[in-house]
Write a structure and sequence with these properties.
Number of helices: 5
Radius of gyration: 12 Å
Structural class: mainly alpha
Largest sheet: none
CATH class: Mainly Alpha
Length: 77
């Protein structure tokens, strides 16, 4: 309801970038930890990549948050 095409991708990307930087991780370090290329992770953070649920789980695990934390709309939106 009310979601624009790709909106969820943008939300996940913002959460990943925020959590990655809060934890002091480079894109390369996080990409290596989840088994993807740095440019792919950059696309995730920009909301350009359509992730599988398994990918969301891997990112959440490496960032130390539950998967739903990456999917929820930020409070300031």
């Amino acid at each position: 309801m009310g979601r624009v095409d790709g909106d969820l991708q943008q939300i996940v990307g913002r959460h990943v970038r925020r959590l990655r930087t809060e934890r002091g991780l480079s894109q390369e370090a996080l990409a290596d930890a989840v088994g993807v290329h740095r440019t792919y992770l950059g696309g995730v953070e920009r909301g350009e990549r359509n992730l599988t649920l398994r990918s969301v789980e891997r990112l959440a695990d490496r960032l130390g948050v539950p998967p739903e934390a990456l999917l929820s709309r930020p409070q300031d939106d």
